[in-house]
Amino acid sequence: xxxxLVIDMQNDFIDGALGTEEAVxxxxxxxxxxxxxxxxxxxTRDTHEENYLDTQEGKNLPVRHCIRGxxxxxxxxxxxxxxxxxxxxxxxxxxxEVGRILKEYHERTxxxxxxxxxxxxxxxxxxxxxxxxxxxxxxxxVIVDASCCAGVTPKSHRRALDAMKACQIMVVxx
Length: 174
Description:
Strand order of the largest sheet: 3-2-1-4-5-6
Order of helices and strands: EHHEHHEHEHEHE
Shape: globular
Helix content: 40-55%
Radius of gyration: 15 Å
Strand content: 15-25%
Structural class: alpha/beta
Number of helices: 7
Largest sheet: 6 strands, parallel
Number of strands: 6
């Protein structure tokens, strides 16, 4: 069975507090990829609380975003409507919970043939989760669809793709 991980396709990362032109452009491609995907689909949702600016991340990135319950925290409507399961909330860039869920599913339910990631931001949350997946399932191919990802900047997006390639993560859609 194949798995698709939809990483943080939330309003704040698309056209909200941390949105970019590149992020807006990938939404239609991500929607098509999700619609065409034959396998299990899970999504993550960056989740912060009201005290975000007091956290380590908030001190390093002092832009309130993805505050639980706000419009910016929600998965964009075009994608939310395609998801069959509630997103996995995560308080950090990478989710150890995602790694645990995938490993448990692989060992107890059905063997995972591959895990493909798409989403935002390539250089922060996509790379973090791709590395967690790779560490959790080292013999399962991990794929990132670059055409359905956007970084903080085009340059940092490119750097992240190159870093993932160096870690034996297959990058497609370039």
